[in-house]
Design goal:
heterotrimer, A alpha+beta (252), B mainly alpha (222), C alpha+beta (659), A: alpha+beta, Ubiquitin-like (UB roll), two-stranded antiparallel ribbon, 7 strands, B: 3 helical TM bundles of succinate and fumarate reductases
Chain lengths: 252, 222, 659
Amino acid sequence: MEGHLNLTLKIWRQKNANVAGKFETYQVSGISTDMSFLEMIDVLNNRLIEEGDDPIAFDHDCREGICGMCSMYINGRPHGPNRGVTTCQLHMRSFQDGETITVEPWRASAFPVIKDLVVNRSAFDRIIAAGGFVSVNTGNAQDANNLPIPKEDADDAFAAAACIGCGACVAACKNASAMLFTSAKISQLALLPQGKVEAAKRAEAMVAQMDEEGFGACSNTGACEAECPKGISLENIARMNREFFSATFSSK
Amino acid sequence: MAWLAKSLNSSLGKKLLMAITGLFLISFLLIHCGLNATIFLNDGGVTFNEGAEFMAHNPIIRTMEIVLFGGLLLHIFDGLRLWFDNKKKRPVAYAVVDGAANSKWYSRSMGLLGTLLLLFLIIHLKHFWYFSRLTNNLTEAHTLYNEMQVVFESPIVVAIYVLGCISLGYHLLHGFQSAFQTIGWNHPKYTPTIKAIGAIYSIIIAAAFAAMPIAFYFNLIQ
Amino acid sequence: MTKLDAKIPEGSLAEKWTKYRSSVPLVNPANKRSLEIVIVGSGLAGASAAASLAELGYKVKVFCFQDSPRRAHSIAAQGGINAAKNYQNDGDSVFRLFYDTIKGGDYRAREANVHRLAEVSGNIIDQCVAQGVPFAREYGGLLSNRSFGGTQVQRTFYAAGQTGQQLLLGAYSALQRQVGMGNVELFARHEMLDVVMVDGKARGIIARDLVSGKLERHFGHAVLLCTGGYGNVFYLSTNAMGSNVTAAWKAHKKGAFFANPCYTQIHPTCIPVSGDHQSKLTLMSESLRNDGRIWVPKKQNDTRKAIDIPEEERDYYLERRYPAFGNLVPRDIASRAAKERCDAGYGVGASKMAVYLDFAAAIIRYGKGEANKRNLHNPSDEEIQAMGKEVVKEKYGNLFDMYKQITGENPYELPMRIYPAVHYTMGGLWVDYNLMTTIPGLYALGEANFSDHGANRLGASALMQGLADGYFVIPYTIGNYLASEIRTPAMSTDSEPFVAAEKEVRGQLEKLMNIKGTKPVDYFHKKLGLIMWNKCGMARNEKGLKEAIAEIQALQKEFWSNVRIPGELDNLNPELEKAARVADFLELGELMCIDALNRNESCGGHFREEFQTEDGEALRDDENFAYVAAWENKGDGKFELHKEELKYENIKIAQRSYK
């Protein structure tokens, strides 16, 4: 049932990448519990505009949990208090009346802040560009059913491919490690016969790029898996490790 | 061999080094603990002293001792390197972190636990390794067993040892299964077993080691 | 009125594309290296075109307003992608896919384009599988299919409820591979704000770096707009918040005709609006209609809970009205039927603007099936329920989770409440067979063009079209133009046309910033959306459309005098981005109403209340309206109509029936 909340918001404000940021405190009232978290920010922003203030910049697009663009660190957790949910799908019914909510951007040296809650995640694109693909030009393909793939492998590959590249894994990790993201792509392609051809080269190239971007190492705390809105499994990191170490000894 | 150095210097390689040295130390702990547990035979330390004597003079063991120190130093060096590296990856800290919501505190505190262990280890090596290997104080009249009796007369030392063992227990609780994850051994069939063995191992090793100073202090063994 | 030349190749329908490919002029590899192509948008069409063209050797630049090409809204497509593979042995063929698409589009699409689409549909699946797209498979390891609306075969390939995501990530991977190789230069967080015209040809774009606010000039021998649809003109739609018409509209203002703007697809199964705060609507995939049954109570204003309404007091109105296709009628028909029931007072939920989509029967059916598979004799009801829910979860788990997240209700226990919402726009920039707009060198691909879906798009055909255009059409058809451009050297962006275009864009942005009014952009966008939804939505009439035009014109004036945009020009400024987009939506909205007013018939998604059969079905007027309405922008809110006559030489045009 719909209810209404009064909340105190502590939100990170930072004009651009070159200046220091700080928290600002805002009061919002009459927030419907049916609103999404982003709609609550919309309400605040429209008020700020009408009052002549600069609205809070934040990344968002599809608002249905699939584009991976929204990225708020809410009360100490990426995408807020609920598991398996992106910020855009987090609804205000998950909060209590009178609560103080702290909102921060993803924090990692590889994800520099652009403005307020907006960060630069282009490092992920470069990791994919390093090897997150099958080298098959358009027109090269054989018939799709020529190569049967065990359903279990296809399902596992899909589960890894469900990654939305939001960066919650990096945000949650105490080392700002991108291993869950990188391993999800390495895993997806390593599980499929189409991807096996380049598996060794891919693992080495993607890990090298990941390191170059300045992400940390893995401490196997499992925070990334727990906070991943798509439930990407730690098994992928283990598989990446296998792929990488076997590549170390087998690649030419 | 540049390829191997390159691989081991990557973020994954550093972890692999941690895992392999960790597993090596885990296997050492098992031997160390097994041997020391002979004090509980209540034979006045006879079996224990025989074991200690063997360990002190067998050339293979002495060689392994060097390897062990190498492994230990590598584990420490690599751990510190990772700790400093990882520190730099988040230059601006979060104001609020709800770590308990997504991970175990000890898994996030391996550096701290490891540092505590290192401090404990220095004390421990001073007590026994230094005594037995680098001084001439070890005689038939004053065995290593006797030395344990002397050292564990102090309640402060006993407390330090118990705290050291607790740190060790938590360090192992995460480290054991983490090492398997790092070497790539994560599979729905085996991982629950690995985790269970890891938990049992960590508890038994920590409890057995902690029981030794306590037993001496309270004169529970003869 | 000029006659539009669609440049459809000669020959029989089935041979057109093959013959075209064998005779189209080619560009040799050395020349490709010196030809530059600007691609705006990185969704299925844009990413696949960029990857394929770069593979061929062209120098490609890709622009997207999101922070990564992987976020384009194609990612949100759920249900699947059609292909005439006939893997199910159920009688599918290229002709049948072609026929279904033309009929589904209510006989308002171009035959030659649609046939080509059906021909390449199989190649798309092959290509995606080769890229590592993890489509759903059967236990034998082969690809699985399901049914979608408007067809009687199973030709839809899918990856759970995330097919668009998987296809886009496949195309994105191919794109990033070319980025890594240096063949594609990527410009994320860049928005195209104008086309640069040189001697009547498109020669580049002006783009704004959204982070620094800097305007940039980019040259291209050809420009491809792969910028998606304009459903956000309605404010509330299933589109992403950033989806916009700006690129297409700027091109339109530079001379590209805009075709069939009034053809909008209202998707029948979306989560209903919950309040004024709502910023967007969420689709529940059409694939749910494979197993879900749609119903309302037989009694008006029935306030009982769904589970308290006995079977005989439920009206499964789609099954009743359309026995042949049942719950799988095309979208326009399903949407209209839902609106009809709600308007007549049979709606459910607090707002009464919703119908039920019920899985109870499917859960029992699957549960019994599972019991058989597991050799359970006399399973209890609870066991059947539990097993049935497992199967439903495997098929639609992510959709059910999403529904629960948004509404706070558990769809495994209660039927979903759904209502139609704006989802897709069949209209778009007019293109010929080559996908070139009326501006030489300017192409439109995917949802941004008008070409393949007529007045209504069938489910699982948008992904097919986007990828067909990008992977298998443009790589051939662009040669037709670029073969004659090999002597054109890359142009300096300091030349007069670029400088002038940038100046014009800067002037426009400064004008917006200087209004300094009192209302935020959302205020105007919401108002526009409401006008469009009420008067140019699921049902339109002459009076309403005329009112809408006047109201939109008034709103335009208010916008340009009273919008307030905070922040600076030279910094990340989402409000400025929104304002520039809404300014274009305000002009497009007017054209949509003009087009809807002009089309004195009902067809597909365009339903004029004055033109309906006795039982409330759309009534086409093939004699007078079997044409594509392509509008030329004459400036100052004036538009001139050009017609492209639609000829059906291979299909007998008929009253569309799904009964």
